[in-house]
Design a protein that fits this description.
With about 240 residues, the chain is of the alpha+beta class. It has four helices and 14 strands. It has a single domain, classed as outer membrane lipoprotein receptor (LolB), chain A, CATH 2.50.20.
Length: about 240
């Protein structure tokens, strides 16, 4: 699956993320707060973790309100390509030579970090949370949270609407859905704790009915009509702290 364009939230300061969450829906905000605490809490503020994702070497860092997300790979000719996204923007190099970065590279690095750092990314100031009620999946009870974004700070795809399923007992984020690039429903599978932060692998399902709202994708999954499209797996984790 190609990484598509997701809200460019990460250029907001990490310090804002910890304190700037809007409480327009206090119930949804509290559920997300508990979820973030279980997945890593304060460890998200200062960490340095690397891992492999498909053909990429990835290193994600937060420190003192700053972030640095690095993605490196080799192309078919053996050239080393490095993209580094920070609070100041994106730099791109090929074999150590600086390039003029394109927006698509910035947004793809951001998308990679966005998914890897869920649910922490749901605390950023441009995020709007809405409680949609309770539901059950595989005999587990979940709180369903709708996520939308402000036009300012929400990026190119700010009109997108996502949905997250938070386990009422464990407070973990077990499922998520989105429609950007095609309707998708993800189920968390393997969990790995590195530097006090939980990182998750996913089974990535395709939802054939493009007329459905993202909040209804769980129904298709429970009916057995979701098609397993790919597996989202990260390996070889290292904490550098």
């Amino acid at each position: 699956m190609l990484i598509r364009l997701f809200p460019f939230l990460c250029l907001l300061f990490i310090a804002q993320s910890c304190s700037g969450q809007k409480d327009a829906d206090p119930k949804a905000a509290e559920i997300v707060r508990q979820c973030v605490e279980v997945h890593g809490g304060r460890n998200y503020r200062n960490f340095d973790v690397s891992f492999d994702f498909r053909a990429f070497k990835v290193q994600l860092q937060h420190k003192g309100g700053k972030f640095r997300y690095e993605r490196s790979t080799k192309d078919t000719l053996g050239n080393t390509i490095v993209d580094i996204l920070t609070n100041e923007g994106l730099t791109r190099s090929i074999n150590g030579k600086a390039q003029t970065p394109e927006d698509k590279y910035r947004e793809s690095v951001n998308a990679l970090a966005y998914f890897a750092l869920l649910p922490f990314k749901l605390t950023e100031p441009a995020v709007n949370l809405k409680y949609l009620g309770e539901t059950s999946i595989d005999k587990q009870k979940y709180d369903k949270i709708e996520v939308s974004f402000d036009a300012e700070g929400g990026g190119k795809d700010y009109k997108d609407v996502y949905c997250y399923w938070i386990n009422q007992q464990t407070h973990t984020m077990d499922y998520l859905s989105y429609a950007t690039g095609g309707p998708r429903f993800r189920k968390a599978t393997k969990r790995t704790t590195v530097g006090g932060i939980i990182f998750q692998d996913y089974d990535n399902y395709e939802i054939k009915d493009t007329t459905l709202s993202t909040q209804d994708y769980d129904r298709v999954f429970m009916e057995g009509k979701a098609v397993l499209l790919s597996k989202i797996e990260q390996t070889n984790y290292v904490s550098h702290k």
